[in-house]
Amino acid sequence: MSKSKRQQERERQGKKQSQNPHGKVKSFEELTTDAGKDEPK
Question: What is the pLDDT of residue 39?
Answer without folding.
Answer: 57
